[in-house]
Design a protein that fits this description.
The chain has seven helices and two strands; from the N terminus they run H-E-E-H-H-H-H-H-H. By secondary structure, it is mainly alpha-helical. The chain is elongated, with a radius of gyration of 20 Å.
């Protein structure tokens, strides 16, 4: 498979490194894990069909592109906005949550991702406590960088939170 992505296929001898096998809860071999950012994001056991193996590597390439390719990041952010504008909040929320897992996207778009996720949290899930937590994570100085669309989502979420105040427990005060 030709690949210009940045991932490594590493073989581990679990007899020599049992702590790795224990940490990954390997019960039979071969066991293959796709690890990104220190987290297992996919795995399989045994020898898969060629199509399944290709899908596994394709997933690694896609995840790498999301993490490192600015054009892919921009396209995904545009798609999330398009879904929000079209009121497909459920799909938009899933994309935003997925994108938030990537350090590069969080660094660049955290305020945008949080405003979109908070909006979805308030208007889909009616989870005003989580929506408030997300809104509160956006630094005041980054509000000017939200752009009109996401600033509108932020303002609508704030208005919804004002209409549905979250009661604070003594531990929160």
């Amino acid at each position: 498979m030709e690949n210009h992505s940045r991932f490594k296929l590493v073989k581990v001898n679990i007899d020599k490194l049992p702590q790795i096998a224990n940490g990954l809860k390997v019960q039979s071999v071969p066991a293959v894990f796709l690890v990104m950012g220190g987290k297992v994001v996919d795995s399989f056991v045994g020898i898969p069909e060629p199509e399944k193996l290709q899908d596994f590597f394709n997933k690694a390439v896609i995840m790498d592109q999301i993490a490192h390719d600015e054009k892919v990041q921009t396209a995904l952010m545009d798609k999330a906005q398009e879904l929000l504008q079209g009121d497909d909040l459920k799909t938009a929320f899933e994309i935003l949550i997925d994108l938030y897992q990537y350090d590069a996207l969080r660094i660049k778009y955290e305020h945008v991702l949080l405003s979109g996720m908070a909006y979805c949290m308030a208007f889909i899930h009616k989870d005003f406590a989580r929506a408030k937590e997300m809104i509160d994570l956006i630094p005041e100085e980054l509000l000017k960088d939200l752009g009109d669309f996401y600033k509108g989502l932020y303002d609508k979420t704030k208005a919804e939170l004002a209409a549905n105040p979250v009661s604070e427990t003594p531990a929160d005060q």
